[in-house]
Amino acid sequence: MATTPNDPKNGGKEAPERDLSQEMLMREVDEAVRTDEVTGALRKYGWPVGILLVLGLLGFGGYLYWDSSKEQALEAQSEALILAMDELEAGNLTAADTELAMIGGDASPGAQASARMTRAGIALMEGRTQDAVSFYEQVIALEGAPKPMRDASLVRLVAANFDNMDPQDVIDRLGPLAVPGNAWFGSAGELVAHAYLDQGKEDLAGPLLVAIAQDEGVPDPLRARTRQLAGAYGFDAIEDVEVTLEGMQVTQGEGGAAQ
User: Fold this and answer.
1) Do residues 91 and 67 both lie within one domain?
2) Are 109 and 184 part of one and the same domain?
3) 67 is in which domain, residue-wise?
4) 188: which residues sit within 8 A by CB, 6+ positions away?
5) Can you tell me the distance from the alpha carbon of 238 to that of 215, in angstroms, rounded to the nearest whole number?
6) Could you give the CA distance from residue 40 to residue 5 in angstroms, rounded to a whole number?
7) Nearest Cα to 158, choosing from 180, 179, 144, 177?
8) CB crowding 124-163: b at 16 or more within 10 Å, else e
9) How is residue 13 annotated by DSSP?
10) 3 is a domain residue
11) Cα–Cα dist 193/170, whole Å
């Protein structure tokens, strides 16, 4: 009779050897089953999964390239602006304008706006008013440019080109800024008031000049200028006569001491 692993006559000597052989066989069978499952899955889903993997890798690689390119572009923009400012400080207007011209449409809206506003300033210093107007118009129309920069460009454009503009055009363009509480109330309001005066509308210009003169948020030189102009047309812009007289006496005293 053949002995079995549990036969007490064999003293348990064959059992470990038989168990080890069975365990190895089961491992081989299990591995074969797993291999068949993986092979079947790859045969069934291999192409879709492979395509997704490739697209994922390409997308990740593209993001890394875009991120790196974006950082390099920002660095180039910053470098161009810094070089331009250095040239301006040295009085090299042409060189500064050349550096700023390198900041093109691929730059961020903020960088483009800064470059064009600076180029407009250079154009004004060189007497090229129409070039300056063109640069300011570009900033105003630049999608994504910060609103404060677009508003500043509008005010500067009108100030530089006031004599060549129709008064109503000045009023239409600057009217939304020429209101109390707006950051550009003083500058825009003064230009609008002058446009009203050119139209012979002193009844509209006077109150606006008075409002500017009485606005403590407006720079003092501008307040003083609009106060005088309002007075010339018969509008009283002085809220407290005693305070104004005291200020005039202090100014006169400082002038006498300086003499």
Assistant:
1) yes
2) no
3) 55-163
4) 155, 158, 174, 177, 178, 182
5) 11
6) 38
7) 177
8) beeeeeebbbebbbbbbebeebeeebbbbbbbbbbbbbee
9) S
10) no
11) 10
Residue found under tokens 């499952």: 37
Residue type, 128: R
Distance CA 36, CA 41 (A): 8
Q: Does residue 159 sit in the same domain as residue 169?
A: no
Q: In the chain, how many domains are there?
A: 2
**How far, in Å, CA of 233 to CA of 231, rounded?**
5
CATH value at residue 149: 1.25.40.10
Whose CA is closest to 234, among 199, 210, 198, 200? 210
Residue 231 is predicted with a pLDDT of 94
- The vertex-138 CA angle with 122 and 75, nearest 5°, equals 70
**Which mean pLDDT values do the consecutive 10-residue runs of the chain (259 residues) have?**
47 49 51 50 49 45 44 66 80 88 83 91 94 96 93 96 97 97 96 97 96 95 95 82 44 42
Residues 103 and 203 in one domain: no
In whole angstroms, what is the distance from residue 139 CA to residue 151 CA? 9
Task: Choose one of 139, 163, 187: the last residue of a domain.
Answer: 163
Same domain, 157 and 61: yes
Q: Per the structure block, which two tokens stand in for 258?
A: 């300086």
